[in-house]
Specification:
The chain is largely without helices or strands. The chain has a domain of about 25 residues. The chain is built from one helix and two strands.
Length: about 50
């Protein structure tokens, strides 16, 4: 099975952590400790972050 790149929106949390949705983790069999190549395409600031 060939996997196509997966696009999703994530919230950056404490210490710059990003949560990968469970569906994406299952599709790609991502487990704790795996390295994942990511690309930042856009950043939307929250109201809290801009004050």
């Amino acid at each position: 099975m060939t996997k196509k790149p997966s696009t999703f929106t994530a919230l950056v949390t404490l210490n710059g952590r990003v949560t990968i949705p469970p569906e994406i983790r299952k599709l790609w069999t991502i487990q704790d400790g795996d390295y994942v190549e990511m690309e930042v395409q856009n950043v939307s600031k929250t109201e809290k972050a801009t004050t």
